[in-house]
Design brief:
Layout (H helix, E strand, L loop, with lengths): L10 E12 L2 E8 L3 E5 L6 H16 L10 H8 L14 E12 L5 E15 L4 E13 L10 E6 L7 E8 L2 E9 L8 H10 L10 H13 L1 E5 L5 H6 L18 H8 L3 H14 L3 E9 L3 E8 L6 E2 L5 H13 L7 E5 L10 H11 L4 E5 L3 H5 L8 E6 L5 E5 L2 H9 L4 H6 L11
Parallel strand pairs: 3-15, 3-16, 10-14, 14-15
Antiparallel strand pairs: 1-2, 1-4, 4-5, 5-6, 6-7, 7-8, 8-9, 11-12, 12-13, 16-17
Length: 441
């Protein structure tokens, strides 16, 4: 169902996120996501917690277990997001925390298709015992689950549904053919997602993979989620970016969270002449005299980046460029890649940038969002000005009762009169207009 082929046909998309009792987020009904999503709201309003839900899911499925300490990927991932402290402080412990993600497909015309898959994870948080564990896990699909159609969903599996360690798995009546029926699964671990452990469970069962509908979709989901990339401008290490010279030969296509593999990523991506032209044009838009950005060998086994300008024979190096220029090169590398991640999340990309570059950055983001899914968070009115034409893609995190936060889409109807007067979205944000969230307090 979920296809991530290079031709981008039926491209998967994270369609919504639902959360209950998770820290300060109150996401019922679920937060609907599009290909472009711009998050705004005060500090502490839940934007980072929203993103941490997504990082948690990726870490559960891709992190390498620490076998020396007997720690699973799930246990490590849940520790990173707070362990038992994931539970809403207003909910009496122990209690259950629900996180559900819906995945759908989007075709070449940009329209969502009806088939969806929902991974519904219920965690048990006990502050007294200082632990959080898996309580229940479901993977189900069907037509237009997003709109809660009356037709019941199809369950690929129900794990720990009635008893920990026990579950039900859909199995074809005939190999590869509908209809299906449920069969029991035993010895299901409670410290690892079933989406990850299904192959091992099937090896120890009487059901070969080809007679289970889950086998194909779980592989596609893991492939999709594993390509999510998360960036926080505060975590970009400019000193490392400027000084580290990565070894030649790595296959990196995605910039690391710190940015320290920038020369290697540029070298690999520049094997495509279209990307090389694109990155040079991008840098000309911020520094018009740019002639060429060139990853080059430094010594025998390492790489560095040379920056050539019109009228200057000798190249400049990254340690000679301003912080803002280096940051923009990082964002350009991420957003202009011909090998885009399946989801790009960037926290506050405006940090350290000249205000005159905000429209350029916004345009890079919009263009990338035509090819993949993007979430950005921002506190910058100058950057928001450039999303005035994309109000439907701006999501405002707002306070319900000073301890819980919800999310709403901006209303074109409410904002239209002010926009007709010449206001930009960032202007309304600057003056604390309540229709875009108001001031932090």
């Amino acid at each position: 169902m979920l296809d991530n082929r290079s031709d981008r046909m039926n491209q998967p998309i994270l369609r919504f996120l639902n959360a209950k009792n998770y820290k300060n987020l109150h996401l019922e009904p679920p937060v609907n996501l599009d290909k472009l999503n711009v998050f705004i709201g005060s500090n502490g309003s839940g934007k980072s917690n929203f993103i941490s839900c997504l990082k948690f899911l990726k870490d559960c499925l891709t992190a390498v277990p620490d076998e020396s300490r007997g720690v699973s990927s799930f246990e490590d991932a849940v520790a990173k997001i707070g362990g038992d402290r994931i539970l809403d402080i207003n909910v009496e412990s122990p209690a259950k925390v629900n996180i559900a993600c819906c995945f759908s497909q989007i075709n070449q015309t940009g329209n969502l298709q009806k088939d969806s898959a929902i991974l519904d994870l219920i965690l048990y948080a006990d502050k007294q015992k200082a632990r959080a564990s898996i309580s229940q896990e479901y993977l189900y699909g069907g037509e237009d689950l997003f709109y809660l159609a009356s037709k019941p969903p199809f369950y690929y599996y129900k794990l720990h549904d009635r008893e920990l360690g026990q579950g039900l798995l859909s199995v074809y009546n005939s190999p590869g053919q509908e209809p299906t029926h449920f069969e029991s699964l035993d010895n299901i671990p409670t410290n690892s997602l079933g989406l990850l452990t299904i192959p091992a469970l099937l090896e120890n069962s009487q059901f070969p993979p080809e007679i289970t509908p889950v086998y194909k979709i779980r592989r596609e989901l893991i492939e999709f989620i594993s390509k999510w990339q998360f960036y926080n401008a505060n975590n970009m290490n400019l000193n490392l970016i400027r000084t580290v010279e990565p070894k030649i030969g790595g296959s990196d296509l995605y910039l690391s969270a710190s940015g320290d593999n920038l020369p290697l990523v540029l070298d690999n991506l520049c094997q495509n002449i279209d990307f090389e032209d694109s990155i040079n044009e991008a840098m000309k838009s911020i520094l018009p005299k740019t002639r060429r950005i060139k990853p080059v060998r430094s010594g025998r086994l390492s790489l560095t980046v040379e920056w050539y300008f019109d009228g200057i024979k000798e190249p400049f190096y990254l340690d000679e460029m301003s912080d803002g220029t280096v940051r923009m090169l990082c964002w350009a590398t991420i957003l202009h890649s011909r090998q885009l991640p399946s989801l790009i999340v960037i926290d506050e990309p405006e940090l350290g940038l000249h205000v005159s570059w905000m429209p350029i950055l916004a345009e890079w983001i919009k263009q990338a969002a035509t090819k993949t899914q993007i979430i950005i968070t921002t506190h910058s009115p100058d950057l928001l000005d450039s999303f005035t034409d994309r109000l439907e893609n701006v999501l405002c995190f707002y306070s319900e009762n000073r301890t819980h936060f919800s999310v709403k889409s901006l209303s074109k109807e409410l904002l239209e009169p002010k926009l007709e007067e010449g206001w930009q979205l960032g202007d309304l944000y600057r003056v604390g207009d309540p229709t875009v969230g108001g001031w932090p307090w």
